[in-house]
Amino acid sequence: MNVITLEYWNALANQLIVICSLLSGFSIAVTANLLVYNSKNKVAIVILKAATIAAGCFLVTVFAMTQISMMTTAGYPGTIDNSDIFLPKTIGVFTFLTGILSLSTVIALSGWTKSKSTGIFTTIVGILTLLLILSTLVHVN
Fold first, then answer.
1. For residue 56, how many other CB atoms are within 10 A of its CB?
2. Which positions ≥6 away from 63 have C-beta within 8 Å?
3. Tens-of-pLDDT digits for all 141 residues of the chain?
4. 129/50 Cα distance (integer angstroms)
5. Residues 6+ apart with CB under 8 A from 87
6. Chain Cα centroid distance, residue 114
7. What SS3 state is found at 118?
8. pTM for the complete prediction?
């Protein structure tokens, strides 16, 4: 089994920080818009919950990856090996994948607030988006 070097984790963490910062900002904007949108529609409430979960997950990933980035940057005052980043790595990867799943749910459900045909279209787009993202993540390993 290949062990990922600390230098590679540093680069990966920095990339995930940027990606998750943008995705959490988007998710927070969706959440804020849905909070002011006065609706008792069950689909809108599920979208609000999924967007909130996505925002929270992406923020957790940002902080987990920031910890990894700080620990793996040259000049870190302590010694470090791969076991030291196990917890932030595990939390960061899990919350990143949960955020992607939640954001895909937002995409898939968004059209159902308008019409059946729009709902079918957005569901197809959401499922394809999730499948393509997951397929690229699987091929990274």
1. 18
2. none
3. 577 888 999 999 999 999 999 999 999 999 998 888 877 889 989 999 999 999 999 999 999 999 999 999 988 888 888 889 999 999 999 999 999 999 999 999 999 989 999 999 999 999 999 999 888 877 654
4. 16
5. none
6. 26
7. helix
8. 0.88
Domain layout of the chain by residue ranges: 6-99
Alpha-carbon distances of 53 from 7, 30, 68, rounded to whole Å: 30, 11, 23
User: Within 10 A of 116 (CB to CB), how many other CB atoms are there?
Assistant: 9
Q: How many residues does the chain have?
A: 141
Helices (H), 5-115: 6-36, 42-71, 86-110
Q: How many CA atoms lie within 13 A of 124 on its CB side?
A: 6
CA distances to 9, 17, 26, 86, 140 from 82, rounded to whole Å, are 9, 19, 32, 7, 19
The token duo for 33 is 């818009």
Cβ(115)–Cβ(134) under 8 Å? Answer: no
Residue 80, phi-psi category: left (phi > 0), alpha (psi -120 to 50), beta (remainder):
beta
